[in-house]
Specification:
Length: 226
């Protein structure tokens, strides 16, 4: 039996579209909500993805016969893509915040009906949003945000994450930004961002319930220049 290695053939970048949602919601469920039972974890993955989509401006998908990775970019209100850039497939598809806000609210309601108020929204995601918004209030002019960057396990180590990130940064730069930011936490490979030259500009901790006692969970905002 042979398997297809994404490094052995072309991986295309294209705009995110609604038909991609189920694949990436399942990916988030598997990556970050596997401790829940299957029905709840899929709702939690759907809730988290729809939240990111409601915050983002553009979406870019890496695909090789199936979706392998996703980059969501948010432009602050003072940034606008030039008209010529909006038709470039590498810049992804414009997202309708209102549509995804409604879907997000529906997923929250379903998850809470299944497992109570603690089922979602995800407390880590909410805390990271607060920290990011705090940095934008302090110094947020002309800053682009990498709202989400996620890869399927089979696509890791092949350079697709860097390629998706560069596509997102190209969009941010075309919109007139000279800086970009992203949120991450101790559960992710935050060392990678320091390795490529980003600077940690904010951090905080969140107390999460554990088996015996609450534990501190750290999360961060990083900034890079374009």
């Amino acid at each position: 039996m042979t398997t297809t290695d994404p490094s052995q053939s072309a991986v295309a970048l294209r705009p995110f579209n609604e038909s991609d949602f189920a694949s990436f919601a399942e990916l988030l469920a598997n990556l970050w909500h596997s401790e829940s039972d299957r029905e709840l974890s899929l709702l939690q993955g759907s809730e988290e993805l729809s939240h990111h989509l409601s915050e983002a401006t553009w979406g870019i998908v890496a695909e090789q016969s199936k979706p392998l990775g996703l980059c969501l970019v948010k432009l602050t209100s003072d940034l606008t893509l030039p008209t010529t850039a909006e038709g470039d497939a590498n810049f992804g598809g414009a997202l309708d915040a209102e549509v995804w806000e409604k879907r997000h609210a529906a997923f929250v309601e379903q998850a809470q009906a299944l497992d109570g108020a603690s089922a979602c929204p995800d407390p880590i995601c909410a805390a990271e949003d607060v920290l990011m918004n705090r940095t934008l209030e302090d110094d947020g002019a002309s800053v682009g945000i990498l709202q989400l960057l996620v890869l399927s396990p089979e696509a890791r180590g092949l350079g697709l994450g860097r390629r998706l990130m560069q596509a997102g940064l190209s969009l941010i730069k075309a919109a007139g930004a000279s800086r970009y930011r992203l949120s991450t936490d101790e559960g992710c490979d935050w060392h990678f961002y320091e390795h490529i030259g980003l600077t940690r500009i904010a951090e905080d901790t969140l107390m999460l319930p554990d088996d015996d006692a609450d534990r501190a969970f750290s999360y961060f905002v990083y900034e890079g220049t374009l």
